[in-house]
Amino acid sequence: MSTRGAVETYLHWLQWRLGHTLVDDLMTPDQAVAWHELCRELRLGTEPLAEDIDEAELAGAGARLETWLEGQVPGDSRGLWVVGPARTGVCTLLHDLVLGLCGSARPPDRPQIPIPLLVCGNATRASICMLGLTGPWHGLSVAEAIERWWSAVELDLRRHIDRSWRAAPLRAGPCDPLVILGGVDELRELAAQQTVLAWARELVTAGVRVIVSSRDDDLPEQAALCEQGLPIASSTGDPDRTGDRVGDRVDRVGDGDRSAEPRSTPFVGGLLRRLHVLPLTRPPIDRFLACWGRIDGAWGRATPERLKAAMLARPALAALTRRPADLAVLAVLSAGTAELPGTLAELHHAMLGSLDLGHPAHRQLLARVVADPDSALDMPTRRAWLAALVAVAVACDHVDLGEALGRDVRLGPTGSGLLLAATRAWAEGGCPLRPVLADSPVRVPRSRCVDGHDDEMARLVWLGHHAGWWGPEAIFVLRRAVPARERLVEMRPAALRPRPLLLALAALDAAWGPCVAPLLRALPLGLLLAEGGTLGPVTATALYADSSPTELRPVRELFHRFLELELGLVSLAADDTTLQAIVMEMAAARDLDLDGALDLVLAQEGVGPRHPRSHGTRDEPGERGAYLDLALNLAARLTPCGAPALIADLERARRTAIHYSDCFTGALRARLEQLAGFLIVLLIYAIDRRLLQPARSTLRRAEVAALQQQLGAPERVAAGFPGERRAEVADDWRWVMRQPWAPHRIAGHLLARMPETLELDPEAVLPRCHAWLRAWLAEAERAA
Fold first, then answer.
1. Nearest to residue 587, comparing CAs of 512, 695, 474, 676?
2. Which of 103-107, 146-150, 711-715 comes out lowest in average pLDDT?
3. I want to staple 226 with a disulfide (CB 3.0 to 4.6 A). Which of 274, 304, 353, 525 is the partner?
């Protein structure tokens, strides 16, 4: 793919991912258009101005964001630090900037590439989380963050848009990056703020254009980055940047040697220009109100005349209208008959009474009003409404609302107290929402629980996980209340399905820590073998960590013996069509979550997401194709020099498969099934090879025979466990032995076909894979 094509696809993807903000969900489409036009009219100046400043002094002050970025202001610097208090529209401003760059005309020789590592507009400020990278990123260098960004983009884009897309042309091509770090001081953890501020310093020092935004202007790094020095002007623009590449400049950030970093002009003093969002002037306010006065919204049609009259009579209300978000709320309230609020506290109280808890976007806005650090509500009101929002989030399965509810650390004790009371009620067999509803100031509608209260508790676990509210006391109660396996797993003769409560508990890795044994003891051995650590961080750590608790070591050893046999089978099946079909049937019977297994590998390599399986559904099969692509590339990287010839033939096979799918017949279906079996074998080989540590180079027949004898009898398997667990383990293993993927069956397939010593290294396996693929392609060409 050409650089231009890769850029266009990336920008289209970015438009799709950042297509709307929270505010858009609160408005009709016509109202949202007027809102975005209002925010684009915001002006920024080098000095802050009070909201009650005289209109004459405010008129003509500052310039729009695009003007500062285009360098039309004398003394403009490489980047900007935008300071905008809450509700001033900075989130929408930066969001629209990114979308504008995606849709604007681009110079063919040097397109500008926005990289929104951190962007406002959602309950969570980290757009890394938008792509599923919910693993820890505090302490990463900016080079590592950029690496994760492009890896996550490639994964997501290939899953949903273009399976052949690669990030390499953007990283190596002549592109001009613009990194967005919006809402730095809105990150909940101090460590996260410090990490992002360090990114800003590294980027501007490396000469990469960056836009930082914050609510306050007293952050630690700000004084050093924004000293008001003037650059030495250059009349020729940036001629020395024509040879720069985004990969050259961004990938070198954090290196010790700065001598090679390109800089367009030497700077005296600060590296970023500090700009303040200025209050709205009357003309854009009047245009916004006139537009909304012609639109029917959810609360009726705004009455601009009523609001304008109030603005003339009440200076305090007029000052409120100079912040875009407050102006929009006042416009909504003007459609009613109640007196318009004159202070921010009155405005927030009016919103509590006007918004609908049953509407998802309204819940998000209420969460901001209640849980924002700058909320004007009194603390008792905020605590009471926090209980209402927790209850409705659980009742409506809106668990990611926890991101917004956890933003103010001062409400953390209240949230932790609600979780503790709910967990105690659930542990005693009652409804976990009962104590939460008792603190709510409003009635929260919810459906009656039919099959107990475990699903509600599962949502509370997710909500508390997102909000960061799980405290030591609630965790202690949760550990002691782990239910019986029937409440955690749906047990069938041929399959074991995790219930929502298990998925939630398995994601709460910070809660279990070294005390994970009570949870894993409640799980059938068959589920642990079948899911292979893909339920979440808890099971992954238990199965793969070198320092597992003593009680879990028999489970870990059993799982690793299973992995050894599976690795041997897929290695033997590299060029055996019959075995490939057997492996495919085993994977289907095991209901192996290939997506989750590959996520584990990508997370270990630091190039992909590490996140628990959500309580929602899995991806559609069509979206999993990109995971296969990435796994094939992973397999190719298993050799020291890679396998470029194998990758090239895999691309040929992909094109052939696309042609087959366009003219599907019975004969072609069989050929596609052959290719699918081969791809699954290669995928499982790549995954098992990375997960099985220390790596094995060979597998001998004697070892396989010994494992078949050991794993073919439930009593011998149970003997490796403590005495009180042996009867349960033996019953579990009898279920395993009835499955097509049982370890002793895998050993039987191996013994029927394997040589005395089976080579497992990529240098031995991948050439055999390549030979099979070449033969398949040759037959496909003859058939064509």
1. 676
2. 103-107
3. 274
757-759/698-700 β-pairing: antiparallel
Measured distance CA(8)–CA(12) in Å, rounded: 6
At 451-493, the pLDDT tens digits run 679 999 999 999 998 898 998 899 889 888 888 888 899 888 8
pLDDT reported for residue 242: 32
Beta strands 176-181 and 209-214: pairing type? parallel
**Residues 697, 759: contact at Cβ < 8 Å?**
yes
The CA–CA distances, whole Å, from 306 to 245, 288, 294, 335, 450 equal 55, 14, 14, 9, 50
The residue written with tokens 């596609």 in the block is: 672
Give the integer Cα–Cα distance in Å for 592 and 638. 22
pLDDT tens sequence across 383-433: 999 999 999 999 998 888 888 899 888 999 999 999 999 999 999 999 999
DSSP state, residue 468: T
- The predicted-structure confidence for 436-446, as pLDDT tens digits, reads as follows 999 999 988 77
pTM (whole model) above 0.85: no
C-alpha–C-alpha distance, residues 309 and 312, integer Å: 5
- In the sheet with 176-181, reading across from the earlier edge strand, the strands are 44-45, 272-277, 79-83, 209-214, 176-181, 112-118
Instruction: Tell me which residue of 317, 381, 376 sits closest to 345, measured CA to CA.
Output: 376
**Mean pLDDT of all residues in the chain?**
80
How far apart, in whole angstroms, are the C-alpha atoms of residue 334 and residue 331? Answer: 5
599's tokens: 């996520």
Residue 136, C-beta contacts closer than 8 angstroms, at least 6 positions apart: none
Residues, the chain, total? 784
Q: How far apart are CA 612 and CA 510, in angstroms?
A: 12
